[in-house]
Description:
- This protein is of the alpha+beta class.
- It folds into 4 domains: 192 residues, Heat Shock Protein 90 (2-Layer Sandwich); 128 residues, Ribosomal Protein S5, domain 2, CATH 3.30.230.10; 82 residues, no CATH class; 68 residues, 2-Layer Sandwich (Ribosomal Protein S8, Chain: A, domain 1), CATH 3.30.1370.
- The protein has 13 helices and 22 strands.
- Strand 17 and strand 18 form a beta hairpin.
- Helix 2 packs parallel to helix 5 and helix 8 runs parallel beside helix 9.
Amino acid sequence: MNKITLLPEEVANKIAAGEVIERPASIVKELVENSIDSGAKQIKIEIHNAGIDEIKVTDDGCGITEEDLPLSIMRHGTSKIVKLSDLSNINSLGFRGEALSSIAAISELKIITRPPNQSFGFSLTVKGGSLTVPVERCANNEGSIFHVKNLFFNTPARKKFLKSKAIENKKIKLTFMRLALAHPEINFQLINEGKTIFNLKSIQEKEEALRFDHFCNENFSKDSLFFAGELSNIAIHGWLSRPSITGASGDLQPKFVNRRFVKDRVIEQAIRLAYRDIMFGKRLPPLLLFIKINPNVIDVNVHPSKEEIKFASPQIISQLVGRAFQNTLRKDTFKSQISSNEFKILPNVNSADTSNEVTLSKTQHNNQNQSISQHSENHSISEVDFFRTENADLGTAIGQIHSTFILAQNKSGIVIIDMHAAHERINFELLKEQWTSGEIQKQKALFPIEISLTEFEAEEIEQKSENLTQCGFVIDRISKTTISIKEYPFIFTKKTFRKRQCLLLVAF
């Protein structure tokens, strides 16, 4: 008796669909990429219940003809390639012919489309991969509407492994960000539960940093460093954050090859090497990188997600990216060399008089409770033991650089302390101690503190309001980009929130 049998077509289609559609964000990606390939200039995405109940993508692209509409939901049905050799010259985002068929296999899908110069449109409805009704004529504007409902209704095991609503919404926003950044010439709109989250107007190429402001930092385009380069017919451009601006998420380092978002170790390694001498730890500066290369020398057919890529000459990519990053950062560093008025000798610290030395050691903490803030107008750093080691002797503070770094001396040599990072660590340790004890000391603001954020940040803060309340924050969202802080932990001051880092640190 044969042990090997062929899987039924229905089962095979569901398995194949699972490779392409991992979560609601995958559907958003595939549908929007189809819209982009159709030449759309207006794309609107609507989601309900984190995309599980409903995803609707509307575009003004070229539409689908009546004859092609049934073929569009068939496996390997595609208009992007015809023969094997076409795989070596992929200029479109989609090409496998698997997106619509995979979506149709695990959801209820309705397509309404109207090609240009056509007086009426056509609709097609599919449930679980099966046509419910034949193609029908209908009214519609030029373009297409892809309406997905009841995702994973026939694959409960996959639906069970979806994350929380907040996480799935975040994945969708991340996907939206990558697509919007890759195609600045298109108007993008994202609507969640009837509420407009993003409404991005078209901009010119090499103005992508203006869009990144909506997702990263409202001042990214102003504070970042533009770079461009070319080597062996490979062109790159983008924007780099200065070392003083860092984050903890690699999501804010999107990289694109031929306007396709990619994850590539060669590029990531080149970036790490460029920053290694000017940035401590594993901090990740926000950045944008665009690479334009001949499609013949890359392979995008590596994974169904199409986010992995192979270069014919990865060493050239590494050299080009690394050189551009290093040269840009080096030039900016030279512009900000330390001048005589930027180095301050701290008072009461000299070789002749050590009676009033300012020390930064843990062992001295219990006996001395003085603050380094007496030597800085802009920072307040107390001698809390922010280094949790028994032998953390940072030595004696002897100077200050750029009003940002403390220069200290101990038995081993010179120690440079980032005052901002130390201050954040101090506040974190104090807040953690209060959290552990169950008594977070908080105070009411005499007047609510209003903070301007990006729409993305404000949405995330609102979703995490319960967690923030447990941390001592009472917050209301009063507009798309503004939140109001009514109460906050006692260890913070109103001045703390001017640059919003503290709040975002706690929230994220």
